[in-house]
Structures are given as structure tokens and as C-alpha cells.
Amino acid sequence: MRYLIILVGFLVLVSCADKGNETGEPSIKMTGDPTTDAIYNELMARILGSKISSVNNNSNNRPGQINSYRNGIARTHKALAACLLWDEKNLQVPYKFWNSSGSSDWSYSSFQALDNCDKHKLQKIYDCKCQLIDHDDVNVLEVPEDYRAAYDRSKST
């Protein structure tokens, strides 16, 4: 009887796990806000298509590889931060660089991604803002109000 209870518990856990979509890609959770989701999708497409320029000693990645954030981080939790420039006049969000981090601790993964971003920004003296974009395949991007207003105005005309 004890083994049956353990087996049922295991099957419940396995059936509740998020297995992604039919293509094997992880399911991305959006905010439900069309403006934030559109900017997130555009940023992530550019960042995920970019090549890795530098790595730390604990990484399995190599410079020149395509960003492996979606499927390449083997840790339990992951986060992605980028140094963003919010250009309201041209409605663009270029980024100077990005940094991803993986950890077994949920909060540490986001802390480490932002901290590494800030340290790199200070080394290069970039005029951009380090922001968390994604945490465990969840859109956590925060769009500044002035950029949001300009973006929404452009879409309504």
C-alpha cells in the first residue's frame, strides 16, 4: 500500500510538470499586457539570436555560440538581464549587452544576472539601464511609463 501511495504521488508530480509546447520549446508566460509582451518578444528574439561574446569560468557555453538561454542552462532557475536604452523618439529598445545566470536558488538567479549586468556596465561606462527581462521563461520586463505612452500613441495612429 505504501508503494502505491508513493507511485501515485510520483505520477501526479510528473503529470503536473510543464513540458513546454509541441515543439519541445518551453512555454513562455506572458504578462497579458500587449505593450509589454510585444516589446519582450522583440527583445528576446534579438537576444536569443545573438552570439555569446564572453563567458565566466562556470559556464558550459563558448564565445561565438548562439545564445542558449532557452534550452542550454542546466540549473533549476535561470534569469536574463540586459542593459537597455529606452528610445521614446524612435520607439526602439536597443541593448548594449545581456547577461544570463542559472542557479539552484530562484532569487539568486535574478540577483546574479542583474549584478553581473551592473558590473559590466560600470566596467564599460555604458549609459543604459540594467533590467531583468526573463526569469524562468516568464516575462518580467518592466516598461517605463514614458516609453509605454509613446509606444501606445504610435500604435493608435
Task: Describe the protein.
The chain is of the alpha+beta class and 157 residues long. The chain has one domain (28-55, 67-156). Helices cover 41% and strands 15% of the residues. It has 5 helices and 3 strands; from the N terminus they run αααββαβα. The model is unreliable at 3-25 (pLDDT under 50).
SSE topology sketch:
Elements (H helix, E strand, L loop, with lengths): L1 H15 L17 H15 L20 H4 L4 E8 L10 E9 L2 H19 L4 E7 L9 H12 L1
Antiparallel strand pairs: 1-2, 1-3
Identify the notable features of this structure and list them briefly.
157 residues; alpha+beta; 3-stranded antiparallel sheet; 5 helices; 15% strand; disordered N terminus
